[in-house]
Amino acid sequence: MPWPHKFVVLMMAASTVFAGGISTSSGEIIGHPASTRPAVMEYLGIPFARPPIDDLRFAPPEPFDGQGIIKATDFSVTP
């Protein structure tokens, strides 16, 4: 295999390994490599329940119903 083809194959493989995305029943979650250990992927600020707003304020938690892409690269604010 010529050198340029090897490079393209290597870059494609690296992009799938370091993309940081995983698929779940709540959608795709995007993380990032840890700053102190690049071999470890961090997934920060993943919601586990719907925000406790209005009628949900003092009710038991309800499951998070996201189906899109969750950017889990930073800690999120707790409402």
UniProtKB/TrEMBL annotation:
Q: Which domain of life is it from?
A: Eukaryota
The Carboxylesterase type B domain covers 22-76
Q: Where is the signal peptide?
A: 1-19
**Known Pfam families for this protein?**
COesterase
- Gene3D superfamilies assigned to the protein according to its UniProt record, in alphabetical order: alpha/beta hydrolase (3.40.50.1820)
Q: Which UniProt keywords apply?
A: Signal
Q: Which InterPro entries match?
A: AB_hydrolase_fold, CarbesteraseB
> How is this protein named in the record?
Carboxylesterase type B domain-containing protein
